[in-house]
Amino acid sequence: MDATEKRTNKKERAKERREKRHQEISRLRTVPYSDHDRWWSADTIAVVTGANRGIGFEIARQLAFHGLTVVLTSRDTTAGEEVTKTLQEEGLKVVFHQLDILNHESIDSFYAWVNKKYGGIDILVNNAGISHNTGFDNSVEFAEKVINTNYVGTKNMIKASLPLMKPSAEGARIVNVSSRLGRLNGRRNRIGDVGLREKLEDVELLSEDLIDGTMNKFLEEVKDGSWISGGWPQNNTDYSLSKLAVNGYTRVMGRILSERGDGGKIYISCCCPGWVKTAMTGWAGQTSPEEGADTAVWLALIRDQSVNGKFFAERREINF
Ligand SMILES: NC(=O)c1ccc[n+]([C@@H]2O[C@H](COP(=O)([O-])OP(=O)(O)OC[C@H]3O[C@@H](n4cnc5c(N)ncnc54)[C@H](OP(=O)(O)O)[C@@H]3O)[C@@H](O)[C@H]2O)c1
Description:
By secondary structure, the chain is an alpha/beta fold. The chain is built from 9 helices and 8 strands.
């Protein structure tokens, strides 16, 4: 067998594995949660960011379908109100509130509102995100905005949510919708500097400062034009780094939050939805938004929160 045949076989095997996993997820999605699994009720409050469309909308819909009260948020009020109405018409408990995760005032006024209305939240799904590249484009023109939205915005949402997380026996949950593009050891898409990669990989050494420093270094190189030879991920560079930062921050917070006592537990995890047919991918991709939402919903609802500080795709743990 020559090298081309070997590559083709490998690709076909990967495709078969992917299809099997998709079938398994479709089957799992039809299995209802048992009474024992259902720790939540209609008084359980789940907040979803960037939920006016795509994966976020589906996460909101599925959580509401399972019987929680969902606060559907979006930065555009008209778009958010419209989709909320469609879910309410299906009989789901969904409420809208404006939220732009890039805007501190919007974050503060959102949390003040949610605290007054519900006395806190049980689940936060950080789904809002942007990418300015599709296909093989790799412009860094909007790198600062991409990192600010996907990483800094998500981080700000998490920090401000902690005092509002309701104490419960089951624990509150934070789920970050991230991407496999942010993996540290992706075969074709990773940071070239082995020393930096090793530091980012060691959960005991990993810190917010190290993650912020890495993002700042990249953004400085974007400004002076040297990023291209800086050994950064080659595919969707700014987006990949923003998600690498989200993954790293999930691990840092997983470590910090694991020290909280019973009754005040907060669990945090992150996931990749797969390559999903949404506006972000120009509706390319292999996965529907319904399936893409599945792992985030599963993480938000799973009783066994040994998922804390870990990374998932298709309901399975994957490497950072
Ligand atoms: N699609 C994929 O293949 C894929 C793969 C891996 C990871 N993801 C991740 O999945 C998440 C959802 O993406 P999607 O595919 O559903 O993309 P999408 O259809 O483009 O949806 C992105 C959502 O984020 C919102 N958003 C952007 N900036 C925001 C801000 N500053 N404040 C609040 N909301 C903001 C958008 O609002 P507007 O409508 O106002 O723009 C939109 O609702 C993202 O985090 C993305 O990185 C997607």
